[in-house]
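[Help] Beginner question about ligand-bound structures

Sorry if this is basic. My supervisor gave me a protein sequence and a SMILES string for S-adenosylmethionine and asked me to "get the holo structure". I don't really know what that means in practice or what format the answer should be in. Inputs are pasted below exactly as I got them.
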Amino acid sequence: MPYEILVDDAKLVKPIKTRLEGQRCFVKPIYRDGDRRVIRTTIDDEHDPLIADFCKRFYRSEVPDDTGIVGFTRRFLESEGCEQTEALLDCLPRRYTIYSPLLLFNHSTHRSFEHPAWRSYFSEVGEAAKAKYFRQMLAQLFPPEISHVATNMPIVETDVMRRPFNIAPLYGTLLSPQAGAVGQLRADPQPADFDRTLWCHVVQNGIHQLWAPMFTMFSRGNIKEKKRVLDVFPEIEGNDVVDLYAGIGYFTLSYLKRGARRVFCFELNPWSVEALRRGLDANSFSRDRCCIYNESNETCVQRISESSVRDLRVRHINLGLLPSSKAGWPLALAIVSMQQPLPVVTLHIHENVHVSAIDSGSFVAETLNQLAQLNGSYSYAAAHLEKIKTFAPDVWHVCLDVDVTLSTSHIRLS
Ligand SMILES: C[S@@+](CC[C@H](N)C(=O)[O-])C[C@H]1O[C@@H](n2cnc3c(N)ncnc32)[C@H](O)[C@@H]1O
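Answer (accepted):
No worries, everyone starts somewhere. Holo just means with the ligand present. The predicted complex, written as structure tokens, is below.
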């Protein structure tokens, strides 16, 4: 079966299409799948350089778009003699994400398998009929490697680890019955527990990322920002990086791919730490290049000074916590102070910011001002503001690159 390419960034569609056309490998039509574009190819070798670096999947003759889910569901319900077909179709979720081997349906108040109409239908027909519905859906509409289905519920905003407490399994086992209580597993997993749950895998920008969806969130929307790390900062090569909110390696893996000598990673969630270790192995990055601390980043100065790295050369510090990474700013500046003589250090400050504060320039001005108040010995220059993705109406997840250098008033001439 041939492959189709899944594209998150609309700007990439044209160059990919042109390249495929040049090799006579492009197949019409380009279509939408959720918020992605899908480009079909005639290529059936996953290692073919034309498609090797892209997120991709097999396709069959039918386009598995929203009509596919609706049409399939209608046929299924009618063949089962269901009398509430129209009511169920009204609240059928149409959008989903594929995180192989998991098909993850979106949730909204109006359209969800968690909607009371679907919950009552499933409880009426029983587990076997529910399983038959999803089994047939997977067989008819999705690639063979997709084996599990769940509903993606909103994360709890107050949880600093941003864990998916409410992910709702629909088909297939996300967590083995042999595993212990979920609360205990979240806080203190034992080595054997890591193999008792489902792991997902995506390739973005040629980088493998793994995570256990029961215990760690994943955001596909950062793909552009990861690409920026790979493309824009050649000075990463041979220097050190600190990732104060490492997660599963969202950015750490890109820094390593770009040639960082070493990345110091701080991460509270043991499941994300395990995911990061699996990510290192999947990308064949030596574990020696990544110092992982499964603890609060408040220990960062102590940990980095205790490490075996002698000539510390931290050139980038990533602060990737939403809605705000402010708590990490003093820590980042303390890391800057550890180095003598001081090179430029670039802070990557992630924040959710209202569009008015972006347009007026007040977000940048206030950030620089607050950094100056934290430590007046340095100069702070806003090098770039990247709008990564919309977080809510009029609110952007942004990354502000701030170059930190020793203030000229503090440079002593000898
Ligand atoms: C969700 S990730 C950020 C990923 C990425 N920026 C995104 O939007 O997808 C943030 C990570 O920081 C971790 N974290 C939060 N506070 C922390 C702290 N004080 N020290 C270390 N890790 C922390 C959380 O457990 C979480 O895995």
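A couple of things worth pointing out: DSSP finds 13 helices and 17 strands in the chain. The chain has a mean pLDDT of 91. Feel free to follow up in the thread.
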